[in-house]
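Researcher: Here's a chain I'd like modeled. Treat it as a single chain, no partners, no ligands.
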Amino acid sequence: MYNGQAQQDKFALKLLHEKRNGFFVECGSHNAIIINNTYLLEKQYDWKGIMIEYDITHLNSYKMHRPNSIHVIQDATTIDYKQLFETNHAPFSIDYLQIDLEPSNNSTLQTLQKIDRDVMDTYQFATVTFEHDLYGGSEIYLQTRNKSRDIFKRRGYINLFEDINNGGVNPYEDWYVHPDLVDMEYVTKLIQMNEKHYIRCGISERSINWQDIEY
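Model: Modeled as a single isolated chain. C-alpha cells:
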C-alpha cells in the first residue's frame, strides 16, 4: 500500500491519524511515483503540496501524475522559501516536510539551514523526514546529522525515530514531529513501543530498522 522507500508516507499518515487534505513540502521529489514519499498522500488522501526537484527531466511526469501539486524545478539550496510559501499560500502548519537531497555535497544541510533562516520563525512542520546518510562514514555525513539535529532541537522538534536503517544496516535518516501539531499521547506510546527495536548499527549507537517500527 505505501509508496515511500522506507514507508515515510506511512509515518506521516500514522502520526496525523490518516489525515485527508493535508499539505506537504518535498525537497528532492525525484520520480513522481516510484519510491516517492508523497505520491500516496496526493493520490489517495487528497493532499497537495510543493514538489522541489533540480532535475527538469521529471517535470512532464509531475504534470501528468501529480497535477494537484506545485512543481518547482530549482536548486533547493537557493530558493527563497518565504516567498515560495507565501506565493503558493502554504499553511503556517505544514503536515509533512521531506528533505532528501545529497548529503555528500552538503545540499541537504544547506537546504535545512535555508529553511530554518527563511521560514521556521513562522511555519511549523508536523512531521519531517530528513536524510543524512550517516552510513557514508565521512565527516560531512556526521556533520549533516549533528548540525541538523541541533537545528530541529532548537526549533522544538522531537526526534521520534533516530538513524533509520534498512534491514539492520546503513543508518540514513531521522524522523521528527512537532509537539504542537501531533498527538503527543500517541507519540509517547510510539516511543515506548519501539524502544526495544533500537540497535547499534555501524557508527550509530542508536538506530532503528524502518521495517521494525510499530504503530
